[in-house]
Task: structure prediction
Amino acid sequence: EAGVTQFPSHSVIEKGQTVTLRCDPISGHDNLYWYRRVMGKEIKFLLHFVKESKQDESGMPNNRFLAERTGGTYSTLKVQPAELEDSGVYFCASSHENLRGRGKLFFGSGTQLSVL
Amino acid sequence: RKEVEQDPGPFNVPEGATVAFNCTYSNSASQSFFWYRQDCRKEPKLLMSVYSSGNEDGRFTAQLNRASQYISLLIRDSKLSDSATYLCVAGGVAGGSYIPTFGRGTSLIVHP
Result:
């Protein structure tokens, strides 16, 4: 079974540019999470989808970040325009919706975003 | 105050040693708890769930104290391959959404 895949693995952009990150969760996983890790800090929650519905986006830093999950399959996270402080590793994770499974996250390998 | 707090370490121990990590969480409504392991430049991977009765998986033992809002992980007979960052996670529901919250991680270095 394929795991969670993220694309690209690395992205280097200039301040003011736009970047779109993609996440393909494990097939059948209704829960999809985006997290971000800034160097030296904890992995911070950004938002949560259940199928195509945004359940919680309280962790999104500001309106420069837009996440979508059309059709409840893959998700995209767009940053427009990117700022220096957006640099970090963006992780996507998925899990089953059932009570036993939902805390057991399967992570993608992350996208290292560097904004110069 | 951070929602999930861990001593960042690093813990530097010889092979064969027993090492214990602690974690506290601030949200008393947290429902489920986990330890994840993250190797350098890799993604976090689930190590084990943590249950109130305590649970063991080989050399790893996890315990939960809900009254003190405290979680622990004990690693016995440490191996070189145990070197990694160990992330404490507390999951709870807020506004209808189940959110796992991560601690900053505790770094373990096992040396020969």
The radius of gyration of chain B is 14 Å.
